[in-house]
Amino acid sequence: MAADGYRDDRLLERLAEALPEARAGLARIWAVLPWARLVGGVVRDLIAGRPVSDMDMATPEAPDRVMAALAGAGIKVVPTGLAHGTVTAVVAGRPYEVTTLRRDERTDGRHAVVAWTDDWREDAARRDFTINAMSCGCDGVVHDYFGGRADVRAGHVRFVGDAATRIHEDALRILRFFRFHARYGRGEPDGAAMAAITALADGLARLSAERVWSELRRILAGPALMPTLELMAQSGVLARLLPEGADRPALECLLATGAPAEAVLRLGVLARGEAGALAARLRLSRAEALTLSSVMSSIGAAPMPDPAMDDDARRRLLADEPADVLVRRSWVGQAARLGRPSAAWDALRRDLAARPRPVFPVAGRDLLAAGVAPGPRVGQALAEVRAWWMAGGCRADRKACLARLEGAATP
């Protein structure tokens, strides 16, 4: 057996135990593509004893031959990324990405021009970290060209080959290093990696905002967040991502409350500056931008839920904001005022989430239907009556509000 390969009879058995339907699907694909191998994360996680999700494979056959072979065996195949040599086989509803072995022809720090190859080591050499560069064939032989198994077991996240070269090929690997170190690393980070990241952090500016946010979101929602942010700060990466400033102590208080691992919630507590500008720079989705704004505004003047609030006060909050917004603000409030878990705050959130949202029961059309002429007085009357309705705990019904509204609109 080659020096870079070793047999692990238990590896595929562990896969079959964890995902029996996936093992059956692999058997069908291997019957058609016997030279294909599992690659990357699936091999890493099986060795690490972690849950497996994606089924990525690689093969020396060209994409057109892969598609023809799969289709000829009655397997559904989708050309999901032919420019990069990737097709997706679908067996029993489960996708299996199959990518032709590649080598980089040119790279610019963002994109790579690739060519096909039949050299497994050459393909592995273009991957980011040693723990992601392993592959396993249908015979159970794990091919490990760069010491990935030892690094998995040691908790050592290390670039394949020269760290600076890997980052020059794709600067996103800077953020991927922090994400993988948080999940798989133990102890001090790799010194060569940190030195290269510190020297080349300016390369992040060449990346699209969408790619940066995709990685940053996973870091924020992932484990070991505070130590990871410390490493990012030491290397200068955090200041490049959040130039307006980062309040790490505030985020640490949020984590201490047991708040959910929501990336945008954590970002809103961590980041300083204006929410709209940050959302635009990171190209957040509309929903994410609204969430970020609601979190960051709660640090300032927005009404903050509090366990001491009575029933009417809670109803007033819900009349102005949806429950999910108030629940997030409650985490911010708990972090700022308490900084630890609290049964009272948990009860407040359950109560807010369970309550029906009060809805102001009248509108301008009700005044117009009553014969009041359109104009500024309509809006003024509505505002006056809504303030009265709110002051009463949002309890007055439509009949009472209509009577109040007619009186308010009468000159």
TrEMBL record:
Gene3D superfamilies: Beta Polymerase, domain 2, cca-adding enzyme, domain 2
Signal peptide: none
Cofactor names: Mg(2+)
Organism: Gluconacetobacter johannae
UniProt keyword annotation of Magnesium present: yes
Pfam families: PolyA_pol, PolyA_pol_RNAbd
Family: Belongs to the tRNA nucleotidyltransferase/poly(A) polymerase family.
Keywords: Magnesium, Metal-binding, Nucleotide-binding, Nucleotidyltransferase, RNA-binding, Transferase, tRNA processing
Residues of the tRNA nucleotidyltransferase/poly(A) polymerase RNA and SrmB- binding domain: 193-245
Poly A polymerase head domain boundaries: 36-158
GO MF term set: metal ion binding; nucleotide binding; nucleotidyltransferase activity; tRNA binding
Protein name from the UniProt record: CCA tRNA nucleotidyltransferase
The keyword Magnesium is annotated on this UniProt entry: yes
Entry's Gene Ontology BP terms: tRNA processing
